[in-house]
Amino acid sequence: MNLFTPAIKDNAGAQAAVRSWIEALRSGAYEQGTEKLARGDHDKRERYCCLGVACNLNRPDAWAYVSISEIDNEWVHDDQETMLAPAEVSWLRLTDECGSLHAPNPFVKEEDWEDGNTALTTLNDTTTYRDAHIYTFKDIADIIEWELEEAIK
Fold first, then answer.
1. Which of 80, 122, 124 is nearest to 102 (CA)?
2. Is the dihedral of CA 148, 18, 40, 138 positive or negative?
3. Which run of H or E residues covers position 76?
4. Separation CA 135–CA 117 (nearest Å)
5. What is the pLDDT of residues 2-12, one digit of tens each?
6. Which residues does residue 63 pair with via DSSP β-bridges, in sequence order?
7. Residue 2 and residue 147 in contact, taking contact as beta carbons nearer than 8 Å
8. For 95-141, how does the pLDDT look when each residue is reduced to its tens digit (9 = 90+)?
9. Read out DSSP for 33-81?
10. The pTM of the whole model exceeds 0.85
11. CB-based contacts of 115, cutoff 8 Å, min separation 6
């Protein structure tokens, strides 16, 4: 299993898209949030999930603000709250744990987890798991980069 479809090996545009995602996660320009693609006030997205960063890079105009309560507000991207829309899955050439092209919540290899695989959203949202560390955007970028390098060998 790999995070990316085999087609990424010969697709320079998709590779560049993934590298821009990796760079954005490492840049410090995005504050890491949990449980939703993005959260914030009605005029500004403030915290992002790692998948929300990808959404923002690919289609920054596809966000809509949703007020859930006075203390819980979120931004949805192409009507998605927690997972990628098909446009982002295709843009990044992602697969799911079964190798399916439609991977709204893509899985990666990670040895700290019992079965050796876990969803990117789980890594993003984890504060502790057994003795695993907290996964920062930089940690997640390292994992995505490793997966990309494996896919294009």
1. 80
2. positive
3. strand 73-77
4. 14
5. 788 888 999 99
6. 77
7. yes
8. 654 445 445 677 776 665 555 677 888 889 876 555 556 789 999 99
9. --SSSEEEETTEEEEE-HHHHHHHHH-TT-EEEEE-SSS-EEEEETTBS
10. yes
11. none
What are the distances in angstroms from CA 9 to CA 5, 22, 38?
8, 17, 30
| Residue 95 backbone class (left: φ over 0; alpha: ψ -120 to 50; beta: rest) | beta
Token pair listed for 58: 């690919």
Q: Would you kindly state where each structural domain of the chain is located, as residue ranges?
A: 6-152
Average pLDDT of every residue of the chain = 83
- Tell me the C-alpha to C-alpha distance, in Å, between residue 75 and each of 12, 33, 127: 31, 12, 22
Only one residue has tokens 């949202």, namely 125
CB 85 within 8 A of CB 79: yes
Structure tokens at 38: 């993005």
Continuous H helices in 28-49: none
CA–CA dist 81, 84 (Å, integer): 8
